[in-house]
Each structure stands twice: as C-alpha cells, then as structure tokens.
Specification:
The structure is a single chain. The chain has 106 residues and is mainly beta. The protein is 0% helix and 51% strand. It contains no helices and 9 strands. The protein has a 4-stranded antiparallel sheet with strand order 6-5-8-9, with no helix packed on it. A 3-stranded antiparallel sheet has the order 3-4-7, with no helix packed on it.
C-alpha cells in the first residue's frame, strides 16, 4: 500500500472514468515510434486484447477515438492530423481496464 487514493497493491488504480488503470507488469502495451511524426504502432504484450483506443490532449479533451480489431495484438494509428504536442493514449482492454501511456507528436 503506497497511501495513494484509489489504488491497490497490484498497480491498479482508477481515473475519473471509474475504469481501473493498469501500468507496468507483464501485461502491458508498447508504443513505437514515440515521439510520433505521422503514424505509431500500439502493440500488446501478454494476454492483453484491446477494445478501444482514445487519444486525449493534456486538457482532457478527446481528440481521437478508435476501435481495436478483435483479437489483434497490433494497431497502427494515424496521428498526422494532430498538432505537435503531448497526448495521453488510453487503451481500453476487453475486461474494461485501461492502460494509459503518454505520447509525443512532433
């Protein structure tokens, strides 16, 4: 227990949506290249299968939302329309948990 609100010993916590957020561990996602020029790849590791990917700017506005192909462990995202800056990628898994990663568009 680290004393942080809304967290437990398994590295799972919740964000404003109420969905658990997972970071690190054997089940994770990899994003490359990052920083991103136009396209980036989201690759799942382990038993993770995704349902949706949401891209938010740092003010919390959703700038992109897409479905992940069923049973796919790799998704290519075209970010060419986004302005350069930092974004949060929220990867919702089929079980409702969310993995959040920071990406930089250059």
């Amino acid at each position: 227990f680290n004393g942080a609100p809304n967290s437990n010993c398994n590295g799972v916590s919740s964000i404003g949506t109420g969905n658990p957020v997972v970071s690190g561990g054997k089940d994770d996602i990899t994003i490359y290249p990052n920083p991103v020029i136009d396209e980036t790849n989201v690759v799942t590791v382990g038993e993770i299968l995704g349902k949706t990917i949401e891209i938010m700017d740092l003010s919390g506005h959703v700038v992109m939302n897409m479905r992940v192909a069923k049973n796919s462990h790799q998704t290519v995202i075209d970010l060419s329309e986004l302005t350069p800056g930092l974004y949060i990628l929220n990867f919702e898994m089929e079980d409702g948990q969310v993995i959040s990663k920071r990406i930089q568009k250059i």
